[in-house]
Backbone:
């Protein structure tokens, strides 16, 4: 993983939250929140909460639960806190690999599309298990391979023409780089989890125009860091090439692309 892959700061949190969350994160948050709520937890730790897509879905389903929402990048949590009134949720900057909580503190731990960013997966899972109460559940999701997630795939391929000698591969490398189910199971088991279940969940992401997924992915994710590291003056050109590729594949009006996530449940 490149060092800039974990950097969600600058203009990224606002664009991520405004464009990418409605495009691909809200429907998955609804699915994951239903699964977390099914266990009726009173205390929940959320890891890699970002701008709070899952946090809001959890709060809506579990109004009496206490939610501790954490993320490595404070600017993501600042954006989340702007959208959600204080009260039920506490926002706290924390690295998933070194959680600042006592052992056995939470009934459930949830993480939406964060595990792919853990530089050491077993360490990240071990920390989740350490802070879970005995019998507590860890519920999280990861994206399936990039070919099953069409906007990310088309945008990534479009950027090869913009930077042919060194194409930016953030989307393939990190968000869509951790989908080997056998590996996920092995790493959870190495951290001590039991009763591991993995389910593929298919969806469709919709946008009013091809430019929306292009801006969301090129400018609202750490792909932006990678493009700017190559040539900061070419961000708009790269976004436009991506939008043209989305339009060629899905049409010039409203667009729809397939998405697929893997949803994982495990027990301490
Ligand atoms: C794709 S975003 C998902 C955010 C949010 N869960 C959502 O559904 O919109 C990945 C998040 O992982 C966070 N992250 C990256 N590395 C992390 C780490 N080591 N510990 C905690 N969070 C991390 C990033 O700051 C970012 O907010």
Residues:
């Amino acid at each position: 993983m490149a060092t800039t892959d974990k950097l969600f700061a600058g203009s990224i949190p606002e664009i991520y939250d405004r464009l990418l969350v409605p495009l691909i994160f809200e429907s998955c948050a609804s699915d994951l929140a239903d699964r977390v709520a099914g266990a009726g937890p009173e205390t929940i730790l959320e890891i890699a909460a970002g701008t709070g897509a899952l946090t809001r879905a959890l709060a809506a389903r579990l109004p009496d639960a206490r939610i501790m929402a954490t993320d490595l990048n404070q600017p993501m949590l600042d954006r989340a806190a702007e959208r959600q009134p204080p009260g039920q949720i506490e926002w706290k900057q924390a690295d998933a690999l070194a959680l600042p909580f006592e052992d056995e503190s939470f009934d459930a731990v949830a993480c939406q599309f964060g595990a792919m960013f853990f530089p050491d997966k077993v360490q990240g899972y071990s920390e989740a298990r350490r802070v879970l109460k005995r019998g507590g559940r860890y519920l999280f999701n990861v994206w399936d391979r990039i070919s099953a997630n069409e906007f990310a795939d088309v945008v990534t391929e479009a950027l090869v023409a913009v930077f042919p000698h060194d194409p930016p591969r953030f989307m393939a490398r990190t968000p869509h780089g951790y989908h080997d189910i056998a590996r996920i199971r092995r790493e959870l088991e190495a951290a001590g989890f039991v009763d591991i279940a993995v389910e593929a969940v298919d969806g469709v992401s919709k946008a009013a125009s091809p430019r929306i997924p292009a801006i969301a992915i090129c400018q609202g994710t750490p792909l932006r860091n990678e493009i700017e590291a190559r040539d900061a003056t070419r961000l708009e050109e790269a976004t436009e090439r991506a939008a043209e590729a989305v339009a060629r594949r899905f049409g010039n009006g409203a667009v729809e692309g397939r998405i697929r996530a893997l949803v994982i449940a495990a027990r301490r």
